[in-house]
Amino acid sequence: MASLAHAIQTFQKGDLSRSEFFAQVDRALAAERGNWQRLKEILSEENTRGLLPADVYAELQRRVEHTPPPPRPETEGEETRVRTSAASPPEQGRGVNMAMAGADLDRMKGVGDTLNGRFVLEECIGFGGMGTVYKALDLRKLEASDRKPYIAIKVLNVQFRGHPKSLITLQREAKKAQALAHPNIVRVYDFDRDGSVVYLTMEYLAGKPLSQLLRAPGFQGMPYMEALRIAEGIGKALAYAHQQGFVHCDLKPANVFLTERGEVKVIDFGISRAFHKPEDDAEATVFDPGSLGGLTPAYASPEMVEHSDPDPRDDIYGLACITYEMLTGRHPYNRMSGAEARNVGMKPERPRQLGHRQWQALKAALAFERARRTPSVESFIQGLRGERRPAEYMALGVGALACLLLIAAGIGYYWEFRHGPGNAAETAAVKPAAPEPPTRPPVAAPAPVPPAPTPALTVSAVAPVLSGLPCTALAPAVRGNAVQVQGYLADSIGPAKLKDLLEAVPGVKSVDLRVEQVSQEKCGVLKAFAPYWLNNRKSATPATLRAKAPNAQLVEGEPLVVNITTPAYDGYVTVDYYVLDGSVLHMVPSPRARANQAPANYAATIGSMGNWIISKPFGTEMIALIVTPAPLFETARPEAEPRAAYLAALEQRLAQLSAKYGRDKVAVDLLQVSTRARRP
């Protein structure tokens, strides 16, 4: 299977033209036509390492989709398995799929096509075992001047459409998802078909799936507080679904979406099953999505693998696997299904971030036996926070009460012994006791001074420390007594010194730094942009700038490609590249990219046509995205110019725009990229 991965990697390096690339892909698909599931895994993995152009990705998934599925899938990846029901034997189902693939090949919809004359498919944003998801422009919303004209459309794969109950499946998914109205569950609008193309419409989310974060090169786990935040978001969605009587049945990182606003959304309730059905639900006797047998082995409990009836604890097992992976960067059972891991006696290791109580909670949720597994999502999240369960508090209370009763009984017994009738003090008296010497009145001990309360930690307590540092752009966040700081820090200060300064703030118990160090020549750039960058970070819909290259590392001769999103207002986009030689290159607007006006919440890729190629000087350079409500400059500037003069004019113009429109209408995001010479 190395040929497909090699072809993708070679293409990403720029060593293949598109025609050469697709020729290699076709040869790889022809050689491995029996392993459809693994082909999809490889495509997903390679796209995670380095995002492919949207049209290339869509064409690849279309070609992979038409590769016949294997007779017996044996992979254990993250794709949802679809088992053919007893009513559709494997041979029959595969024959239908192949026939449909041949009949629909020329009519397949892809990027640039329109569904029912209304939805324009603009970008392929992912696909799985059941469907391909596109970002689509809703022409009706555009006509009505809707500020959010984009939606997401899930189109059933050819193989899944071959299943005789596929249309029923999508209708049920739409109905169930519409009923599951919750902030942490993706909103589903409706389902429809365009000829043989069956699709589902849902809200469009700007961000990325959790799987992309977990599969990033070098990922070894995230801080406990961030993992807890995501787990809590997933838990809220599951708890709500369980209250409505539904089990997700296919919870995995690819079905958890992290939006650019920081929201956690659970998607794809397509094969969720009711674990208790209302008596008036007549449709439950007509169609059961469990007949499709959809699951993802690595996150499936032993009961799911063995086809037991659904139970909320199946979702808890999947959530525990995801939580473990977020904390450690690895699957608790080496990506084995629950049944396989149980049969070989695997035991997960304790994540280093967890205390004893938290580890006991996670371990209980990972239990192979349903009866021993954590009974509810709420209990799991409570334990993951390290909080005691109510039963523990009751046990402690009962124990304390018992101790008090024993002490009271002892005091009573002593009193009876000393003063009760017939006690030893009376019978032993033979002669009067000598008078006791007079005693001094007791001196009252000074009242204990209560310890000073720990001050409540706020961002305002941390901000002065950061604002006093030169050559920085730092955004703090506070959760309890933990401080997290993101942004850019002068290498003359360094993370160690910054951590010492923050730990000296009253109330700070832990510090999490996610900063990039910058060299002295970038101080002018940070000085000009820091206040606008910080405001943008606080926005609910910030402007974003990301490099296409993995880890923003580029090699001589490679094209510079960046992805941008705009904030929640119409504006003018400027993208500047600050070169190590002291100049600034204007990427947008420029003679190569003149148009720079963009609508609100707009996503675009810049440089995909190879407009800018990496060359000397090499090192760490900075790119800035600026979105303003009016053109940044009225007249075109040269494509490249000296940095100092440009920054002076830029600071003056940004001050004018922020005074006129408000500072919150000037959005800035920054990106550091590392460049190096190509090795011979």
Structural write-up:
With 680 residues, the protein is an alpha+beta fold. Among the domains are: 1-75, no CATH class; 457-517, 2-Layer Sandwich (Histidine-containing Protein, Chain: A); 519-676, Immunoglobulin-like, CATH 2.60.40. The protein contains 21 helices and 24 strands. Strands 16, 18, 19, 20, 22, 23 and 24 form a seven-stranded mixed β-sheet that branches. The longest helix is centred in the middle third of the chain and has 30 residues, at 390-419.
Please describe the structure with a list of short key phrases separated by commas or semicolons.
single chain; alpha+beta; Histidine-containing Protein, Chain: A; Immunoglobulin-like; 7-stranded mixed sheet; 6-stranded antiparallel sheet; 36% helix; globular
Give a quick rundown of the structure.
The protein is of the alpha+beta class and 680 residues long. Helix content is 36%, strand content 20%. α1 packs parallel to α3, α14 (356-365) packs antiparallel against α15 (377-384) and α20 runs parallel beside α21.
CATH topology descriptor of the domain at 519-676: Immunoglobulin-like
Using the alpha-carbon principal axes, give the shape: globular
Ranges with pLDDT <50 over ≥5 residues? 69-76, 81-107, 277-293, 390-396, 422-431
Mean pLDDT: 78
Share of residues in strands: 15-25%
Q: What is the annotated CATH architecture of the domain at 519-676?
A: Sandwich
Radius of gyration: 32 Å
The class by helix and strand makeup works out as: alpha+beta
Please write the CATH class name of the domain at 519-676: Mainly Beta
Largest sheet: 7 strands, mixed
Distance between the termini: 28 Å
The CATH homologous superfamily of the domain at 519-676 is termed Macroglobulin (MG2) domain
Q: Can you count the helices?
A: 21
The total of beta strands comes to: 24
Helix percent band = 25-40%
